[in-house]
Design brief:
The chain is α/β, with parallel strands linked by helices. Among the domains are: 148-298, Dihydrodipicolinate Reductase, domain 2, CATH 3.30.360.10; 343-424, Alpha-Beta Plaits, CATH 3.30.70. It is built from 15 helices and 16 strands. The chain has helices at residues 22-33, 64-68, 83-95, 105-122, 138-145, 160-172, 176-185, 194-197, 200-213, 233-241, 304-319, 353-359, 384-389, 391-396, 418-424, and strands at residues 13-18, 39-45, 60-61, 75-78, 99-102, 125-127, 151-157, 224-225, 245-254, 260-269, 282-289, 293-300, 343-349, 362-368, 377-383, 400-408. The strands form 3 sheets. It has a 6-stranded parallel beta sheet with strand order 3-2-1-4-5-6, with helices on both faces. The protein has a 6-stranded mixed beta sheet with strand order 8-10-9-7-11-12. A 4-stranded antiparallel beta sheet has the order 14-15-13-16. Helix 5 (138-145) runs parallel beside helix 9 (200-213) and helix 6 (160-172) packs across helix 7. The longest helix is centred in the first third of the chain and has 18 residues, at 105-122. It holds the Pfam family NAD_binding_3.
Amino acid sequence: MSKPSPTNPAPPTRIGLIGFGCVGQGLYDILQRHPEAGFTVARIAVKNPTKLRPLPAGRFEFHADDLLDDPTLDLLVEVIDDADEAFRLVSRALRQGRRVVTANKAMVARHLPELIALQREFGGTLLYEAAVCGSIPVVRTLDSYFAQEPLLQVSGIFNGSSNYVLTRMREADSDYAEALAEAQAQGFAETDPTLDMAAFDPRSKAVILAAHACGLLLDPDAVLNLGIENVSAADIRYAAERGKKLKVVAILQPLPGGGATVYVTPQFVDADSPLYAVEREFNGVVVDAEFAGQHFWRGRGAGGHPTGSAVLADLVALRHGFRYAYAKLPAETALTAEVPDLELEVYLRSAPAELRRALGLTDVSEQLSAPGFTYDYAVGYVRLSQLHRYRDALRAGGTFVARTGRVRPVVAQPAPQLETALAAD
């Protein structure tokens, strides 16, 4: 058999593409523009046969399992929205020993222990750089470059949609609804913005990074996520008056002796933080390593071409035999049961009195509250576990919560219960 050469090049790597939305189209366009990359999209499976698409109808088929059963396809790319269907397809492909790329962060975060176990048992490979922060190569960097180095903290802005809304609220002195409508019109936010604005999307990304940065497999439901659905122009002005900006920031904080604290909330960011200048739809990731010091990456966190470029990078890596090492994970892949507790200093605006007492706000350093005021707030310490417990009540009550950035160990007294606080009335 003749070897590939400039006059006898290797045949293109054949890809089976499942999904042809924003990311799928972005990847297809990149590969069409750069045939020298050596990939060809041989088959495309989609769900809806009546949807208009920018390719001839004959290029599409409607049974994704047929692609999994095609031995002529070298690599599979899954870029659909349905996390449950994505897991069914990806897990089946891994049981076949296939090589797969996915961009579905909710699926990976929810099922990472099973996905790792399937790779180990059947020999397949799954890469998912495109699932976290779009074009920023953070997953492979943590998995490979920082495989052995202890990390002090990983933090960042992991969602471009909410970051765009906060940027526009500050720039235009507008309210949340107006900025969100603009983000939707620009294509930076979905018609149903819940996953982005309520911080479920960055929570999934934080859970994925915890496996590579801290060696932890977390249940997403155990990780606090507070979003910006209740943010107001007054909150933006409060930050600006103090020389800060509001950002939705994810924190992964490894703890001495093992474990880590992981949470995602709005935070007042100081001007000396690398995240201060990350605006609009951009993402930013800060890694503080014990020996290498601080590293910072900024890049587009979403969009067809930025995310498609991450898929392409994974395809090239698969072709060269790369797989994640998970060097910091134990041999067993069971979920870590609990996220350790901390006390966080928070800005709490428009919290009903009973909910504020239930949260156990202590050491209040600043507050504004008077009859007739439509804007009232307090700054004090709350346990992370209490914020998690009453997350839904905070959202439903119209309360906005943002961290100041200060944290401390948990004080040893029990936090009050909402039922007790209500009974005190």
